[in-house]
Design a protein that fits this description.
It is a single chain. Helix content is about 15%, strand content about 35%. By secondary structure, it is of the alpha+beta class. An 8-stranded antiparallel beta sheet has the order 1-2-9-6-11-5-4-3, covered by helices on one side. Strands 8-7-10 form a 3-stranded antiparallel beta sheet, with no helix packed on it. Strand 1 and strand 2 form a beta hairpin. The relative contact order is 0.25.
Length: about 190
């Protein structure tokens, strides 16, 4: 487990940040998450944007009260403090996506461009091979791919929710589920 917080990689897409953190959770914790997700109830109700509402994918919602009780929440908070020092954020939605070969996932944004929302995306599969695909791609306004994050087990990708992005489904040779746990975060107004 990583002791000093620093991103593995950092990029900007049209001035908006994407941070990749590895080693923030122990292997035992990761195994517990993957095992629990293997027993979780998923429904095919999630869609990327209103115009693709007919193309749903699998998701499992988490009550917000549970998010801050998770062992990965302190690591998420540390990553947020690194990315946006001096700012406070609170979760407003949390859910796990399940993607498998043959699923159709669409490029989307998580917030309007004038908002300062963040998305914390944890990859919680117990094992992942590069040939399995499943990367999360980030695009500029013209739709050109600018950054790619592989779904390595235990990886956290923290990014500005206004960046167009998509989680690609696994390749044909992958029989493992691609789990990505998303925590949507909004800034807390200073008092």
């Amino acid at each position: 487990m990583q002791t000093e917080l620093s991103p593995t990689r950092h990029a900007q897409v049209e001035g908006r940040d994407v941070f990749v953190f590895d080693g923030l959770i122990a292997d035992g914790e990761l195994g517990s998450y993957a095992e629990a997700l293997g027993r979780a109830s998923f429904t095919r109700t999630e869609f990327a944007k209103p115009e693709t509402a007919d193309y749903k994918h699998w998701a499992s919602e988490m009550p917000l009260a549970n998010v801050v009780q998770l062992p990965l929440w302190p690591a998420t908070q540390s990553a947020i403090a690194y990315a946006r020092p001096g700012e406070s954020y609170r979760p407003y939605r949390a859910y796990t996506n399940y993607a498998a070969y043959g699923d159709m996932l669409y490029t989307h944004v998580d917030c309007a461009p004038d908002q300062r929302e963040l998305t914390a995306l944890w990859f919680l599969s117990a094992r992942w091979e590069p040939e399995w695909g499943g990367e999360t791609m980030f695009f500029d306004a013209s739709g050109d791919a600018m950054f790619c994050a592989s779904p390595r087990p235990g990886r956290l990708v923290l990014f500005d929710g206004a960046i167009p992005h998509v989680g690609r489904p696994p390749s044909r040779i992958c029989y493992a589920p691609r789990y990505s746990f998303a925590i949507k975060l909004s800034p807390v107004a200073a008092t």
